Amino acid sequence: MVYLEAYEDFEKAAERLYLSAPNKTRCVMKYNHSNSCLKVKVTDDTVCVQYQTDSQQELKKLEKLISNLMKHMASGER
After folding, report:
1. Contacts 24+ apart (CB under 8 A), 19-27
2. pTM > 0.90: yes or no
């Protein structure tokens, strides 16, 4: 599995993946304390997009992305 380098590419790919298959898509976050790195994976079992960062600014962007995805999930939008 390959990590996307640019946050903007990951954000677009994750939103597109969720909107294409909202019932099958899941998001997993994993924090590695030893190297202060957050890894995020969004998958629908066919396509998998991943991103990792240790930047505080990008952590805030990821928080906003996850919040937006959860709003979509809670509202039932497709």
Report:
1. 19/72, 19/78, 20/44, 22/72, 22/73, 22/78, 27/66, 27/69
2. no
